[in-house]
Amino acid sequence: QAKRNGRDCTVDYNSSMTLAADEVILLNNDLHHAIKENELVVFYQPIVDIQTGIIVGAEALVRWSHPTKGLIFPDSFLPLAEKNGLASAVDKWVFEHVVGDILRWKEELKPIGDLLFSVNFSGKKFQEPNLQNELRLALGGHTELAKQIIIEITEREMVLGYEGNIETIEALRACGYRIAIDDFGVGHSSFASLQKIPADIIKLDHSFIDNIENSSRDLNIVRSIKSLVDQLNLEFIIEGIETEQQAIKLKHIGGTLAQGYLYAKPVPAIELYNLVANQKLKYKTS
Ligand code: C2E
Ligand code: MG
Ligand code: MG
Ligand code: MG
């Protein structure tokens, strides 16, 4: 299990903050600067096989390392970015950094370089006419990397622009990317999404598992969604697992992937590397 507070960590990344509304407004001017001056940071949260706990990939989650306010969570500045037309720039920045990390790990022959990496795109990003070209440039000739990259878009945003989004998904999948529907189940028309959207992965919103320890009804709902997802030959990732009891219940519903604080919080790249490296050792020796 990942430690919640690494004693030996110099960065206290658990102390990211959520800002009050008035503070958010003050940040407005800084955000443009932040992207240009590389004040953004990519954190990674491991994605594990729920049966074995083995890390199979990681989701990239952006933070803003503000010079005076410290680490700021995306929920505090992405809505602002969205309003100012900067959301696409943030997503581009994150994508490029993830590609950079993967390539570096591959060059150093680190096994972590072969895992899956997931990035989040805003609805706006998804609708950019130049998207494919931008991603191709970011891969810098390493087109084969697309196979290792999952692009997440929330169900809510997906539904907002169905037709164009479906075209984009098909184009991206043709390049090798996998597409995940994020926060599945709490957007609108989840069944219609399943029917219409040619995605590869369903990421179940954490709210479905919050109460499974106490509610067999809730557990049955998760089980049913999983069986639906299985029937459609999609991958399933359950988000937000925090307790061992939840994990035990979920293991009974069969093989699936999972993310959550129980396994690991989002961590800086070097820390992700350590988590993967140590696990390798553990599984080799046991
Ligand atoms: P998301 O994509 O659904 O990511 C999962 C969020 O849940 C992350 O919050 C993660 O830290 C948190 N989480 C993971 N495990 C647990 C758990 O066990 N318990 C609880 N309570 N929370 C958990 P975070 O990093 O604050 O990100 C929030 C949202 O911001 C993301 O939700 C995603 O929608 C958005 N986001 C993050 N990075 C990016 C990005 O680069 N681009 C875009 N467009 N959106 C991003
Ligand atoms: Mg996500
Ligand atoms: Mg999510
Ligand atoms: Mg979310």
Automatic annotation (TrEMBL):
Top-level taxon of the source organism? Bacteria
Where is the signal peptide, in residue numbers? none
Positions of the EAL domain? 24-280
Protein's UniProt name: EAL domain-containing protein
Question: Which source organism does the UniProt entry give?
Answer: Marinomonas phaeophyticola
Covered part of the full sequence, start to end and full length, is 537 to 822 of 822
